[in-house]
Amino acid sequence: MSQRATRIVEVVVWWGLCLGVWLISLSAISLPELVVAVLASFPCAVLAVAGRHAAGNTWRFRARAFAPAALLPVAIVSDTARVLASALPGRRRAGEFTDVHVEGGAGKGPAPDGRRAVATLLVTLTPGSFVADIHDDGTARVHVLTERGPRMERIATR
């Protein structure tokens, strides 16, 4: 596929993602909202592609890197309950920073960069943890609030 065709496909994919996010955020979909969503999401897609190319990010992903996403709903619900419980009077907990090795995330290049990006996304999507920093050697500095349940910082980095 030519570079031009690749960029067109990339814009279409981003357009679909932007449109999907817009439509999901609506409480009811009417024709005017749909028209605005279609028209407004296209420039967002073009800018996303332009920004990615300007930044020089070329990530390559393996499908198995996304496998931990299947546990995200469980992790989000359990982390939310634990985070809310830890905010109750007498149960306040500060959390802690820990270093986690991202398997396949060491080095430079499209594959390790993509692996680190997916691990960062999956860990940070849960309310009980977030990636504060991640290095080229594959080490992620993660802040963890909850200590039980599905630990995305362990699951997503394997």
Quick summary of this structure?
51% of the residues lie in helices and 11% in strands. With 158 residues, it is mainly α. Helix 1 (3-24) packs across helix 2.
Descriptive notes:
The protein is mainly alpha-helical and 158 residues long. It folds into 2 domains: 53 residues; 93 residues, no CATH class. The chain has 5 helices and 3 strands. The chain has a 3-stranded antiparallel sheet. Helix 1 packs across helix 2. The protein is flat. The two termini are 33 Å apart.
Can you tag this structure with a few keywords?
3 strands, 11% strand, 3-stranded antiparallel beta sheet, 5 helices, mainly alpha
Fold blueprint:
Layout lengths: L2 H22 L6 H25 L16 H15 L9 E6 L8 H15 L4 E6 L4 E6 L7 H4 L3
Antiparallel strand pairs: 1-3, 2-3
Helix pairs in contact: 1-2
